[in-house]
Amino acid sequence: AWALHRTLVYELAFLFADDSSGRGRSLLDACRALAGFLQAHGDADALFGSFRAQTPHTLVLHGVETAIGTIAVALADGLSSVRALALIGSAAAVADAGLLSLPRAVRERRGELTSMERKMIQQHPDLSLRKMPAFGIVAPEAQRAVRHHHERWDGTGYPAHLTGHAIPVEARYVAIADTYSTLTVPRRGMPRLSRGDALREMAQSVGQFDPALLRILVQLLSGRGHSATEADTPPNGA
């Protein structure tokens, strides 16, 4: 798990390495702090091992990508404290851990969910909250990030149907990174979208994300090796 983690840290740090603001180095520092936090407060390999053992797609990869993406977006939004970044990253890494408490048939469903199955899926943020203390993740901001990472900007999300800036900013960071990773991480039986296609799909989800944070994600990922037509400003101008 940690070999994978380090690989992704360096890959994303190099992505921002030519940024004159120095975000690449700051991102690397925050991700190292995240690794240190998880290692100090729990058995990281046991955590990610449980993900891998119980899911057909790589929830390890998704958890790590979501953590690093959350840190990158928060950093670009102006959060500079390494401790705060690592704390939010730790919450992002386990935000979907509650899915493991659901029946395999529900969490692996590829078609449309029944209303009951949908209600079960919507319980996973609270189920994730129950798992967090075992890994030393107990700070209120981390709990807010996990519980509300499926709220939507327009108020149609869950569990509390919060709207706009009433959604904790920590949760808005996780929501952006979680969705991007979900669209791009390899999963059995599901297409893996390119960077540009994923950003376009997110931009077309009108009302789902904080528009300012979506712009930040596009700006972070629209450079190295990609043309402006593939991953530039979202089609809806978000």
Order of helices and strands: HHHHHHHHHHHHH
CA-based gyration radius: 17 Å
Helix/strand structural class: mainly alpha
What average pLDDT do the residues reach?
A: 80
Low-confidence stretches: 224-238
How much beta, percentage-wise?
Answer: under 5%
Number of helices: 13
What does this 3D model show about the protein?
The structure is a single chain. This protein is an all-alpha fold and 238 residues long. The chain has 13 helices and no strands.
Structural descriptors:
mainly alpha, 238 residues, disordered C terminus
Summed up, what is this model?
60% of the residues lie in helices and 0% in strands. It is mostly helical.
Sequence-ordered SSE layout with sheet pairings:
Blueprint (H helix, E strand, L loop, with lengths): L1 H14 L7 H19 L2 H11 L4 H18 L5 H12 L10 H4 L7 H7 L2 H8 L8 H8 L21 H16 L10 H10 L6 H11 L6 H4 L7
Helix pairs in contact: 1-2, 1-4, 2-4, 2-5, 4-5, 4-10, 5-9, 5-10, 9-10, 10-11, 11-12
